[in-house]
Amino acid sequence: MPFLGRDWRSPGDQWVRTNEGWEKLRLWRVKLFENLNENIIARLIRLAVAEWDGKRSELYKHQPYIHFIKGTTKERKILTSLSESFVHLDLTGAVKDVRRFNYVLKLLQLLLTTKLGNLSGTSQKHIFNILDEMVKQVLRTQNNIQALRELLVCAVKVLHEAEHSHIGSTQLWNRHRQSVNKMINRINKNQIKERADDEKLQFSDLPEECIRDILMCLTDHRDIIHTGQTNSVVQELSERQLLWKQLCFFHFTNKQLLIFLPEHMNEMMVDWKYIYRRCVKRFGKRDTFADMLAICSYCDNIFWKSIGHPCLSEEEPMSISLPPEKFIKLFHL
Q1: At 332, phi and psi to the nearest 5?
Q2: Does the residue 303 lie in any domain?
Q3: Which alpha helices (H) appear in 35-97, and where do they start and end?
Q4: 283, 308, 327: which is the final residue of a domain?
Q5: What's the angle, vertex CA 134, arms to CA 133 and CA 138, rounded to 5?
Q6: In angstroms, rounded to a whole number, what is the distance separating the alpha carbons of residues 97 and 107?
Q7: Rg of the chain over CA atoms, in angstroms?
Q8: CB–CB of 158/110 below 8 Å?
Q9: Per the domain annotation, does 29 fall within a domain?
Q10: Where in the sequence is the domain holding 18, given as residue range(s)?
Q11: For residues 210 and 318, what is the distance between their CA atoms, to the nearest angstrom?
């Protein structure tokens, strides 16, 4: 009698049916833990800290990471998928951290504009779940509203263009479209409330030296321009040539700047704001992130640089930073 066992071609994954469709059981368990009520998690942490008062930060600091499998062997046929990385790296929770928000925003922008139609249905659902969490975070904090609105408009355009050339069912694609329309309506209904006159210190009350140093730390020219529109004193500081000169040398190389600088340059006569505007139009500005993903050169774990990961190396291993473009290339997309 022949042995009737599990198909040898199957990776052995178990599937469970949820409200969002079928998902892998091991990923569903991870999501279930991450989606626990915040009050329950806070209570568990308080109880644990009360019981063990020793190594607080080391014991209860969550380190989202995933082991990246580069290739397959005869013994192992499973590759690290994009949907698994979304869950194990906790991208949904990452948007709640102001340091990681822009990184996730750029990552979703690249996936939506270039890869969405070729992604699996599971990866598509993860992307729109992260997008929904970003909307909640933006409405809660009143930050990055314009950037998120542009991303949602981009999502609508992509959903329309790839309507007849995407992977997955038509029903799922229509569900994505309905979700994005609901997100746009929520953003449009949002009204920014003015700060009440609580007689506390405001940005315009700071000394000019402090305001200038804050503007010097901004890397996006749109933030500088919008900040300058709030006050006449701040506007005068935002027009200073030293500020725009610093932006020019931060975002562009000397070779790029020389294209627009005059041959007989008199540094006192150079309009650095004009040079910056021309360079941005030609080359685009450089992306900067307060926190980003990295891959360990020793154990091949992908992790957030600010949190770290449990590595087997006794010495501190070298890690390679992963901008959003490099992260996507890891999965051969």
Answers
A1: 55, 45
A2: no
A3: 38-51, 56-60, 82-88, 91-94
A4: 283
A5: 120
A6: 15
A7: 24
A8: no
A9: yes
A10: 14-61
A11: 37
> In the 8-state DSSP scheme, what is residue 17?
E
Does the reported pTM lie above 0.85?
no
Name the residue among 89, 190, 196 with its Cα closest to residue 138.
190
Q: Which of 18-22, 31-35, 230-234, 290-294 has the highest mean pLDDT?
A: 290-294
Using CA atoms, how far apart are residues 195 and 115, in angstroms rounded to an integer? Answer: 41
CB 18 within 8 A of CB 30: no
DSSP type of residue 315: S
Q: In this predicted model, what pLDDT tens digit does every residue of 112-143 receive, in sequence order?
A: 998 888 888 889 999 999 999 999 999 998 88
Partnered with residue 296 across adjacent β-strands are 319
Q: Is 94 exposed, middle or buried (0-12, 13-18, 19+ CB in 10 A)?
A: buried
Q: Which residues contact 149 (CB under 8 A, 6 or more apart)?
A: 184, 187
Report the SS3 class of residue 67: strand
Are 29 and 35 in contact, with CB atoms under 8 Å apart?
Answer: no
In contact, 237 and 215? CB cutoff 8 Å? yes
